[in-house]
Amino acid sequence: MSTSHLNDRQRAGGGWRPLCADSEAASASTTSRTGFPLQRRAEALGGVKTLNLRTPFGDIDLTFEPDGTEGFPDLVGRAEPHTVGSVPVLVAALAEVIRSKTAAGRQKDLLALPELHEIARRNQANGSA
């Protein structure tokens, strides 16, 4: 891991604070897939590389160093801004998601690729990124 990557990860740790606060307001009880309580303090999440969350709106995977990438520094240039609750977040561009799923090579990722390529094709035909 490069020093600059560690610095990015350390700087990003502060970003957990508002997200954790929003999650506290949204749900009084959160458990992991194994049923253990999920620690939603910024300090507890600082070294986490991937979170697989099950929500009432569907499953969400938060990956901080996706396969086939160098992490945040590699992805931020093409990331797309969104808002989750009241928290602004950057989401990896679809092309980067495709690149990561291809690099990961897991069955679930390979099964998702045809649909992701179709979405990318439609976006390009509509003039979207």
What series of H and E elements makes up the topology? Answer: HHHEEHEEHH
Radius of gyration: 16 Å
| Secondary-structure-derived class | alpha+beta
Please state roughly what percent of the residues sit in beta strands, choosing from under 5%, 5-15%, 15-25%, 25-35%, 35-45% or over 45%: 15-25%
DSSP helix fraction: 40-55%
Q: What is the β-strand count? A: 4
Shape: globular
| Biggest pleated-sheet summary | 2 strands, antiparallel
What ranges have pLDDT less than 50 throughout 5 or more consecutive residues? 1-31
Major beta sheet, strand line-up: 1-2
How many helix segments? Answer: 6
What distance separates the N and C termini?
A: 31 Å
Q: What's the mean pLDDT score?
A: 76
Q: Explain this structure to me?
A:
- The chain has 129 residues and is α+β, with helices and mostly antiparallel strands.
- The protein has a domain at 3-70.
- It is built from 6 helices and 4 strands, in the order αααββαββαα.
- It has helices at 3-13, 16-26, 42-45, 72-75, 94-104, 107-125; strands at residues 50-55, 58-63, 80-84, 87-91.
- Strand 1 (50-55) and strand 2 (58-63) form a beta hairpin.
- Helix 5 packs antiparallel against helix 6.
- The longest helix is centred in the last third of the chain and has 19 residues, at 107-125.
- Residues 1-31 have low confidence and may be disordered.
